[in-house]
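Need tokens for this chain, all 155 residues.
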Amino acid sequence: MSEPSESQASRPDQGAIPLEKYSAQGKRVLGLAFEEARSFRHNYMGTEHLLLGLLRSTESQAAATLANLGITLATARLAVEKIIGYGEAPIEWRPKLAPRTISVLSLAVSEADQLKQSSVGPEHILLGLLREDEGVAMGILTTFGADAEKVRAQL
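Here are the structure tokens for all 155 residues:
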């Protein structure tokens, strides 16, 4: 097996992500989530990385909603560090999508479809996180009192 090219190593395993359904902002969140997984030296992209990617996508309504609920990038990163910590070695390969992440991304597509929107954006990813109902990101969101009803009211 050969090593991936630099362009392959700089993006997540996309086997389960229908990227053609994602808006530019939605794709940006995925890229930022991947960067977060790598910065934590995790060999997977989990829901916690999606949450961090949403918070880094500061121009999105999803990030504004999270900020209104008191969830900042700094506090979310501290929570991830406390709950999971850092991996032992730098990641050289693309992280795999965790099963819950695949579920969240599928739910995000479903959210966009239900809202009759043509592409999946950050807001749909946030709603997908809330619909997944479990996982590290949901634990962080719950700690701050975020639930689907509060988030939908602000989106």
